[in-house]
Amino acid sequence: MSAYANNVLEMLKGKYPWEKEYIQSVSEVFKSITPVLDSNREYQSNRILEQLVEPDRSISFRVPWKDDQGRVQVNTGHRVQFNNVLGPYKGGLRFHSSVTLSIIKCLGFEQIFKNALTGLRIGGGKGGSDFNPRGKSDNEIMNFCQSFMLELSRHIGATIDVPAGDIGVGGREIGYLFGMYRRMNKSFEGVLTGKGIAWGGSYLRPEATGYGVVYFAEEMLKNIDDNMDGKVVTVSGFGNVSWGVVKKVNELGGKVITLSGPDGFIHDPDGVTGEKVDYMLKLRLSGNDVVKDYADRFKVKFYPGERPWDIPCDIAFPCATQNELELDDAKNLVKNKVKYLVEGANLPVTLEGMEFLENADIIYGPAKACNAGGVACSCFEMAQNANFMNWTEDEVDNKLHQVMKHIHDQCYEASAEFNKKGNYVFGANVAGFRRVADAMMDQGLS
Ligand code: GLU
User: Fold this and answer.
1) Which residues are catalytic?
2) % of the chain beyond a pLDDT of 70
3) Directed axis angle between helix 373-386 and helix 393-417, to 10°?
4) For 169-175, what is the mean pLDDT?
5) Which atom of ligand 1 is nearest to the CA of 378?
6) What is the CA(165)–ligand 1 centre distance, in A?
7) Looking at domain 56-197, which CATH architecture does it have?
8) Ligand 1 and 90: CB distance under 6 A
9) CATH number of 206-370
10) From-to residues of CATH 3.40.50.10860 in the chain
């Protein structure tokens, strides 16, 4: 790491020693950008890194709501507006018991570069709450969302900050949040993405992250004259991203043999196809977070408390959550001769795991490049809302495909420019950073 980046990282560790996840995401980017900092000293003289690591603002707030027994419950909400030099703050809301300000800053920092890579007009932000939707009734979810929006609405707007879904926030939650915003502001505007088709949503938004991940993978494969046909694929998670990945891999002739949840993973050697893919939707809607149901129903093996990284495959798609693939998992994958690792979840691999994989003989696609299809489609939703128009499914799919190819090519070219051809982790960090840093320099101290 360059001395400049290292100094800023040490400063950050001294200032926020408890924000471990946030410091992890900053270290990951800083490790890659040394040659860029060396080749352009103006980044240092303008103190671009010091400016980048401090969000424009972080808002934390109380969210009181009543449960079905009439008891008062209190959660904490956050919205971190990180950087808007390229467009309105954009990024999801995560409702999960693990949410802290550090996790939101970690994901928000990552989001800046992800959004920059899309080439679209979106800045970086992220938000959420430690509210756990698991086991809650519809009424409780609505109470919570309305209370959350009561405060959040002061800080967002169609050209200011446009939140979307993430873990624990899907179409239902976006509906309750949007309804409350509309009522409070008397205005029907594209202030959230992931809306229902009938009220301002975009075709393919639910599938877009997963489809985008596979479009990116397809480009990686094509680049070395390979293709998806006949590939054996392991996937973790069972939510939105995994579902989109499974659908698209099947379409391209690959075979998905695993899915996972917080309870363990299932191994389905015949492949997750047909009614099994639809069953993934049912599992998600059940709000139960268990994949054992899939094993019981389709009579396949269930491994309680384990992750699927010991199962031999050609391509691994971690699509569940951050830090779900550790050093030992990475070693197992390589031992079993995995050829590609493509990240669907945000930051799914630990720093140690990443370091190992970067030096192993595999092709590695990082989340900020591979899973940018979701946020890209959100930006398409904003464009449609701004014009009071709806694009067809084919139009959205074509544009999504173009954006993913553009991201792939930018990452590849950046890796080649610095003699690291095919190192997509490096290429994504460099290409994303340069776009944001240059816009910051153009716009001066602001
Ligand atoms: N939560 C998604 C992500 O991590 C989507 C964000 C958005 O659509 O704004 O990129």
Assistant:
1) 126
2) 100
3) 130
4) 96
5) 8
6) 6
7) 3-Layer(aba) Sandwich (3.40)
8) yes
9) 3.40.50.720
10) 56-197
